[in-house]
Design goal:
366 residues; mainly beta; five-stranded antiparallel beta sheet
């Protein structure tokens, strides 16, 4: 079947904001915004990159494949309302969402098809479907998390087994060597051989834990939703930072050793090794929205942030020039073809894009 990519350039769909000087020690950072409308999605959630450089996005409308210039949505099958994904390799993507989870596999024609591994149909007596809100790889198994169960899909055998929660699984956290879970009482459990082992209790110390990061020397950093950071080292728990009036949704530790926080109303925080804020990116300084749902670092050490208005790319290196060069080349070819045929190209209007883009194009080309 012919692939029906709708070619959408970063530079035509929204703002291109240079925020040099606002991010200390960053190398000419540029923020790109890809809107929900350009992705043909009402809501975007999680983004992951495959080894071949492509990006995949879990969205309310299906699995979105993108190379940063063009986007295509796969939405065939029972489960198209996706919440979380894990990119196993270039050809296999695992996803979870409302009602179940499954696997997307690339065909010989280069398209991804969906195979359901587990799905709960709504009924007249029970219309509430389980929501699978996290998908991670641990010990050669893909782990799917819902509020009541963890499901383990063995990559070697294809076997699927489940583990019922003692109370509830509010979140799961995959660190370098361990798998953790949390419950509504803010107790952190280490998952070992299908058992929940109490690792740390935050009942009287903090709100919901949104991320656990494994540090050196078997120490751990816990990030809570209410802006508190706790470090556990040699069984001793110490608060290392607190950000007042900040609600944290997600956090990562980058390859450069920074801690990056995505917040509800304060955009993105970049912290140094002492957990001091070294930079912020907010609405007005690159972001189109201060609500950041998810943070991800790609193989070129660029930061991707999903928000209520789409996806943001924060470039901190020279790799972004490859995207710019590809996009501008593609745009120029599109303009030439459109002028020759005197018509749009499968619905794409590059001449109109340039007219509507205005000064943004001048800035990018410069």
């Amino acid at each position: 079947m012919k692939r029906r990519y709708r070619f959408v350039l970063f530079f035509t769909i929204l703002s291109v904001s240079s925020i040099s000087g606002q991010l200390e020690n960053f190398s000419n950072p540029i923020v790109f915004h890809v809107t929900n409308a350009s992705l043909k999605a009402t809501e975007v959630r999680e983004l992951k990159q495959t080894p071949n450089g492509l990006y995949f996005i879990a969205s309310a409308g299906g699995l979105i494949e993108s190379n940063g210039v063009k986007h295509f949505t796969y939405n065939k099958g029972k489960l198209s309302n996706l919440i979380a994904i894990h990119a196993l390799n270039d050809s296999i993507i695992y996803s979870g969402g409302n009602g179940g989870f499954g696997r997307w596999e690339k065909t010989a024609f280069g398209e991804f098809t969906y195979e359901s591994l587990h799905y709960v149909e709504p009924t007249k007596t029970d219309y509430l479907q389980p929501r699978f809100t996290d998908v991670v790889l641990h010990n050669d198994q893909i782990v799917f998390q819902s509020l009541d169960y963890l499901y383990y899909h063995d990559l070697a055998t294809g076997a699927l087994v489940n583990q019922k929660a003692k109370t509830y699984f509010t979140n799961i956290f995959k660190t370098k060597n361990h798998l953790f879970s949390s419950d509504f009482d803010n107790t952190i459990f280490k998952i070992e051989n299908g058992e929940e082992i109490v690792f740390q209790s935050f009942t009287k110390k903090s709100s919901e834990i949104v991320e656990i990061i494994e540090l050196e020397n078997n120490s751990f950093l816990f990030i809570s939703k209410n802006g508190e950071l706790w470090k556990k080292e040699n069984k001793r728990l110490t608060q290392v930072a607190k950000f007042d009036s900040v609600q944290i949704n997600d956090a990562i530790k980058t390859e450069q050793g920074e801690l990056v926080l995505g917040t509800t109303q304060n955009g993105i925080y970049f912290l140094d090794a002492t957990y001091e804020v070294k930079a912020k990116v907010k609405k007005g300084s690159g972001l189109s929205s201060d609500y950041v749902r998810n943070i991800y670092e790609d193989r070129s050490q660029n930061i991707w942030a999903s928000s209520d208005l789409g996806i943001h790319l924060i470039s901190r290196g020279e790799s972004i020039t490859e995207i710019i060069a590809t996009a501008l080349t593609f745009l120029c070819l599109g303009i030439i073809v459109q002028l020759l045929i005197n018509n749009t190209i499968l619905g794409w209007d590059p001449v109109g894009n340039v007219k509507s883009g205005g000064n943004a194009f001048i800035g990018v080309i410069a």
